[in-house]
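Technical appendix A lists one of the benchmark inputs used to test multi-chain prediction within the project. The record comprises two sequence entries:
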Amino acid sequence: MSADGHMEIPFTVRPRPDTGLYNGKLGVWLFLASEVMLFGALFSSLILIRTGSPTPWPEGWKELHVYPAMINTFVLIASSVFVIMAWANLRLRKPNVARMWIAATLLCGFAFMGIKAYEYSLSFEHHHFPKTNNFFAIYFTMTGLHGLHVLGGMVVFAYFLTKGWKMHEHEYQRFTNRIEIVGLYWHFVDLVWIFLFPTLYLL
Amino acid sequence: MSDHAIEQHEDHEHHDDHDSPENIQKEIRKYLGVFLALAAGTILTVWVRLGPLHLPEGQAILVALIIAFVKGSLVALFFMHLLSEKKLIYSVLILTVVFFAVLMYLPVTEVLGKFGYK
């Protein structure tokens, strides 16, 4: 219990002796484990639908727009480096530099969503919608769900740049840990895209 | 000892060589190296598919998945620090891999059947 009578959440900063981890980090890894199953189920569905398709499966590189998606791959990879730079600079006790990297990560999020919107608009122009066929149904489902995850990460980064930024003034290590765990989430989103890109666009 | 007391007790043990500025600078150089490898992997993936190789479907799938697996491993090992994590994280991930393998069993046997390996 803190001096002002509020209940304090334990192990938000230091590792628990039994797990060796602070609670947030274990929590985010458990969440990511559930996310593996969520995207795994969709990849599993894609393989089954493609293998069992009675008609020839459309080739992604002919139906979709490979180069915008390739640029998006670079954007996400770069954003993964930016968020880890933010964490490294917080550990170096350079919060203002870290803030710049968080902002750069958020900008990458906007760039990714902008390019994705452009790509969707090109598909719509060609009258390719989720109802068109199984290929486009699974393409829009998987990239749409992935896009929602990007959006979720962007909301968190925007929070840390604005209201949540104040925490670094009085709970520096806790703030640093928060950036570490949102970084883990963001790397996972990048990881999913690394598999989505060749699976949907190039095969 | 309460949780909070344990946290305070462990404060002095937390900062070690891992957090020294030299080590962090080394880590940053490593991250930049991984970034270059990931970028090169992305270009290679596109080149293998759209370049002059014209691989058959089965080989194209295999090559694309191998490159994606290598890239994914780099992200997990270096960016997500799985090279040096706590035992509990590895336990969680091993359990995840087991469930993921069960999930993939049916589709993978279907694919193998399609290519005549059933």
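Chain A touches chain B through 52 residues (CB under 8 Å). Helices of chain A lie at 23-51, 60-63, 66-91, 95-125, 134-161, 167-170, 172-202. Comparable benchmark entries are summarised in Table A2.
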